[in-house]
Amino acid sequence: MKLGIIGGGVMGEVLARSVIQTQIFHADQVCILDHNPHKLKSIQDQTGVHITSKLQDLNAAEMLILAIKPDNVKEILQGLNTQCLLISIVAGISLQMMGELMPPQTPMVRVMTNTPCLVGEGMSVLAPNSHVSEAQLKMAQEVFAAVGKTLILPEKYLDAVTGLSGSGPGFVFLIVDALIEAGVLQGLPRGIARQLVLQTLIGSAKLLEESDRHPAQLRDMVTSPGGTTIAGIQVMEEYKLRATLLKTVETATRRSRELGQKG
Q: At what angle do helices 10-21 and 37-47 cross, to 10 degrees?
């Protein structure tokens, strides 16, 4: 067994499916643990991975991914009898907290990912402890590259990462919903408004990604003197959209720190 995944929820299943599809691991090399037998059977039928409800069955794995609720971390870690590479995508649980529950010198990587990984476009930031080897970190990065893009950063940045990209999809969905409603308010059918907003969002993101220009320069390209865009931007500035977004990420980051301290 190469990879054990503790937690058969959405994230656990997506990671299992993705590493198999990208041929990082063969289905026979992956085992998922969960206490819901119906969920496990469904995952096995769809992916061909091994399944178990016994923690000791994962002791032989070279890599373990924690994809569980924070409340269950202590019980799970205390039940493990292994010093394999431990990867956690559990929000609010620091490397220090996990280290206090694991044998000394256990290699661990804390990961903050986000929901676009469900469609292979996630953003995952990996923070390793000092016991992770270069080869182990490379393998961990390959696993999360199967569901999107990755960065390696010190753990001190993860609260800000949580506030920006971890929570970010929720902020984007709220803005998209508001834009669709705005289109409907101006008389567009809802389906048409949705199509217009989504393609505008996708196209703008792609333009940003492929251009070396600052976002302000790209904004200027569509902002004609006395035109419609500058009229709309004037309203956004009047209602302090920029300040609202700054405060939104600041508040989400602060909340991430608070949850970590509680954990």
A: 20
pLDDT per position as a tens digit, 164-219:
999 999 999 999 999 999 999 999 999 999 999 999 999 999 999 999 999 999 99
What are the b/e assignments for 5-18, b being 16+ CB within 10 Å? bbbbeebbbbbbbb
Among candidates 116, 87, 100, 97, which has minimal Cα distance to 205? 116
Residue 116 pLDDT > 90, yes or no?
yes
Token digits of residue 205: 């993101």
Backbone angles phi, psi at 242, to 5 degrees: -60, -50
pLDDT at 262 over 80: no
Residues 226-240 pLDDT 10s: 999 999 999 999 999
Q: What are phi and psi of 130, to 5 degrees?
A: -70, -10
Beta bridge pairs of residue 151: 125
Q: Are 109 and 87 in contact (CB under 8 A)?
A: yes
Pull the structure tokens for residue 39.
């969920």
